[in-house]
Amino acid sequence: MISRIKGQVLRALPNKLEVWVSPGMALDCTIPISTYDSLMPVEGAQVELYTHLVFKETQQALFGFATEEEKELFLLLVNRVSGVGPSVAMAILSGMKVLDFKQAVSQNDIATISTIKGLGKKTAERIVVELKDKIKVAEIWQAQSEATSSADGNSILQDAQAALIALGLKSADAQKSVQKAFKNNPEATIDDLIRASLR
Q1: Total count of domains within the chain
Q2: pTM of the model
């Protein structure tokens, strides 16, 4: 599986990049507008993309993303929501920032999600319902949002969470534990948060 590529831009369009990855090989990557806006690619520049290869009956398609968060959301939509394929997932990424989309799902904001071009109200409703029902994504995203806003952008929470995951905790458990520890002690250091989370 092609999970990441790095190379020189041969051609750049808002929805597609052609990247020279090695002597004699260039790859076409379909990208969301968010990736294009983030990278602002120009011919001759070096780019690095997180990628996912999709096999179809008659062809293969390589999708590229500027960040892991974009790729993870793409995979989540394609794999977890019925009726949402790569084209719809790319439309979502092109129409809304990852953080804004997560907040809309966690807050049941169907109206906002349905404003994305190519999505109707029924599709928006299905996205919210299925993400919540299948893996409780909305609850996790809500916890992330609350933790981020509480920390005013401080990276301490993220670092503590990463340390807990490295120690074997599940991502959702680490997020909730760190958030709780931070609420109890807003002045806590990373070590304090880790110790409190492990109690």
Answers
A1: 3
A2: 0.70
Q: What is the pLDDT of residue 152?
A: 47
pLDDT for the residue numbered 94: 94
Asked whether the beta carbons of 49 and 5 are under 8 A apart, the reply is: yes
Packing angle, helices 121-135 and 137-151, rounded to 10 = 90
3-state secondary structure 33-60: HHHHHHHCCCCCCEEEEEEEEEECCCCE
Q: Rounded to 5 degrees, what angle do the CA atoms 140, 146, 150 make?
A: 145
With beta carbons less than 8 A apart as the criterion, state whether 81 and 131 touch. yes
- Whole domain around residue 189: which residue ranges? 140-198
How many C-beta neighbours within 10 Å does residue 145 have? 15
pLDDT band at 149 (very low <50, low <70, confident <90, very high): low
